[in-house]
Specification:
It is a single chain. Helices cover 37% and strands 15% of the residues. The chain starts with a strand and ends in a 16-residue tail after the last helix. The model has no long low-confidence stretch (mean pLDDT 95). The chain has a domain of 172 residues: NADP-dependent oxidoreductase domain (TIM Barrel). By secondary structure, it is an alpha/beta fold. The strands form 2 sheets. It has an 8-stranded parallel barrel with strand order 3-4-5-6-7-8-9-10, surrounded by 6 helices. Strands 1-2 form a two-stranded antiparallel ribbon. β1 and β2 form a beta hairpin. This is Aldo/keto reductase. Keywords: Oxidoreductase. It comes from Nonomuraea corallina. InterPro entries: AKR (IPR020471), AKR_Detox_Biosynth (IPR050523), NAD(P)_OxRdtase_dom_sf (IPR036812), NADP_OxRdtase_dom (IPR023210).
Length: 330
């Protein structure tokens, strides 16, 4: 496992993040998965206040080794369906959610706190100032944004820069060969702004592992009904299976490697239902896809960025006949 810096900070984070969303109890299998991740050199564990018992499980598993890990959790989603103020990105929910998360995680600080989703009813100024207060108090070290439009993240970080607040260091979004919407605005924004991108659903709920397209079904519980898998999804899965066979690796490793090949800022979040599955996913860091394989995979699931990105590319000639010889910024 190699490491990169989290956004424009000095925090070292591993190539792959470990997703703890499905952890409900400290079982021997879950404990083994945490150990496997640590042995592989991984150091970021991602959970959330809304993931049931996940925070409590992570807290117990990290006893005695907490400081060696970057503990990432999220707030925003409701703590009480009957109370409007028990959800959202406003200061009250932030404070109460974080205090509960700290108790569950058995720690007095969180390394990385994500706002779980954009709350359209809370001014971004309030969110950024409230997050900064918690950083200054030492309860949070770094902050990030999950599931929000690019303009919201850009505006938030511009405000933080102007006012001396803590900016978002990372962005958490879904990204896979089959779900590439972030390539329109979010991924270019992250690259330009120096944000780390934590990518979830990189295997598209198992579809890109090939389990619904070829071979016997996996023993793991199905996350989608096999009959609902579309022809586009099957075509992408077949391309993944073909590349995996050529390289002598597994389809899951190819699907994860594809997201990493598309952008250096992407850190896939790997989650697994067994130690064996996690070990297989972790081995994706050793898979380097040839350029032609990346192109074949990309072409297998057609995607258009739409306006304005595609239009701007088409208009390149307006910058002059020699434009194609311009390398641009490094």
């Amino acid at each position: 496992m190699r490491y990169r810096l989290l956004g424009r900070t000095g925090l070292r984070v591993s190539e792959l993040f470990l997703g703890a969303m499905t952890w409900r109890a400290v079982t021997p299998e879950v404990r083994r998965m945490m150990d496997l991740y640590e042995e592989a050199g991984g150091n970021v564990v991602d959970t959330a206040s809304a993931y049931g018992e996940s925070e409590s499980v992570v807290g117990e598993l990290l006893e005695g080794r907490r400081d060696r890990f970057v503990v990432a959790t999220k707030y925003t989603l409701t703590r009480d369906d009957r109370d409007l103020n028990a959800a959202g990105n406003h200061r009250k929910n932030l404070v109460l959610s974080l205090e509960r998360s700290l108790r569950r995680l058995r720690t007095d600080y969180v390394d990385l706190l994500w706002a779980h989703i954009w709350d359209r009813h809370t001014p971004i100024e309030e969110t950024m100032r409230a997050l900064d207060d918690l950083v200054r108090a030492g309860k949070v070290l770094y902050v990030g944004m999950s599931d929000a439009p690019a303009w919201v993240v850009s505006r938030a970080n511009t405000l933080a820069e102007w006012r001396g607040w803590t900016p978002f260091a990372g962005l958490q979004v879904p990204y896979s060969l089959l779900w590439r919407d972030v390539e329109r605005e979010l991924l270019p924004m992250a690259e330009e702004s120096g944000l780390t991108v934590a990518a979830w659903r990189t295997l598209e709920r198992g579809v890109l592992s090939g389990r619904y397209t070829a071979g016997p079904a996996s023993d793991a519980p199905a996350r989608v009904a096999p009959g609902t898998v579309t022809e586009r999804e099957h075509a992408a899965a077949r391309a993944v299976l073909d590349v995996a066979a050529e390289l002598g690796v597994t389809p899951a490793q190819v699907a994860i490697a594809w997201t990493r090949a598309r952008s250096r800022v992407v850190h896939p979040i790997v989650g697994a239902s067994s130690p064996g599955q996690l070990a297989d996913d972790l081995a994706a860091v050793d898979v380097t896809l040839p350029e032609d394989a990346v192109s074949r995979l990309t072409d297998a699931a057609p995607f258009t960025r739409g306006f304005p990105a595609d239009f701007i590319d088409e208009c390149a000639p307006v910058f002059g006949a020699a434009y194609d010889r311009l390398d641009g910024r490094p």
